[in-house]
Amino acid sequence: MASFRFEAADGAGKIEKGLVEADSAAAARAALRARGLVPLAIATLATGNARGFQRRRFSEAELALATRQIASLLTAGLPVAQALGATIEQADDRGLREVLAAVRSDVFGGHRLAEALGQFPREFPDVYRASVAAGEDSGELAGVMERLAAYLEDRLALRGKVLAAFLYPALVTLVALAIVIFLMTYVVPQVVEVFRNSRQGLPWPTRLLLGASAL
Fold first, then answer.
1. 1 contacts 23 by C-beta, under 8 angstroms
2. Integer distance in angstroms from the first to the last C-alpha of the chain?
3. pLDDT in tens, 80-111
């Protein structure tokens, strides 16, 4: 079974695009017609080892979410191919859907999951693929996927905390700088004008601020 990218129209003339699993292009068209769609274009979705496939680098957050979904489905007893199919249907990112569809096609072709993931080394790091291979060898793939999902989620959470730790001081500095600029360019000149109109001498701190604002 292969994956096909399709473009079809529904009864109202609205264009739909997506992926469909079928044994052939003709079977894909038949599946679309069974859904009440009129096929406009059908194209085979190349697998990862095909030169024509344009790899898309999806975010680590998307990978963590997909890993968590696959792990939950495997724990529930679904086979790998069905777990991948359900994850594809729930994925929002187009690049993730296409990569997982290609992986699923390889799994349908008799490849192990780790081998199918190996076609996309940019999307699935070495440690990820090695962990999946170890899970398949030990028969504990569901547990390994659960731990991978937890690892990715913890890594994202830590990255968010580090980013927040850097952003907060920078934000405080920017706000303080904006306040100083406002005082030097708007408030201080008005205070100076008040002293001049009252014909009083300016205190030395005010003269110092006035000199700084003139720079």
1. yes
2. 73
3. 999 999 999 888 888 888 889 888 888 888 88
Is 189's pLDDT higher than 80? Answer: no
pTM for the model stands at 0.59
Locate the domains of the chain by residue range.
2-44, 60-157, 169-213
pLDDT band, residue 46 (cuts 50/70/90): low
In the CATH scheme, what architecture does the domain 60-157 have? Up-down Bundle (1.20)
